Amino acid sequence: MEKLRVSRLPSIVVVVEGRVIHYRGSMHPLSAKSLRVFARDVIPNTFLFKLSNHDGLRRFVDQWRYYNK
Q: Would residue 8 count as lying in a domain?
């Protein structure tokens, strides 16, 4: 934990491409929305596939089913 620079528990950290990014929001109460926003902001856009319509969602799910048999 020292290498991740965690000074208190519980802690939420993300390691992206060797960088340690700490969740700075309140842990009490912790909301799903704040975690989603944190994840969305710290994960590079190149790692995520954005779905903007139902057809895109259908293609994504169909590919997932094909490759994850």
A: no
pTM of the entire predicted model = 0.58
Task: Let me know if residue 18 belongs to a domain.
Answer: yes
Provide CB contacts within 8 A for 6, sequence distance 6+.
13, 22
Residue 21 lies inside a defined structural domain of this protein: yes
Q: Are 22 and 1 in contact (CB under 8 A)?
A: no
Residues 6+ apart with CB under 8 A from 42: 14, 16, 21
Residue 18: what pLDDT? Answer: 86
Q: What total number of domains does the chain contain?
A: 1
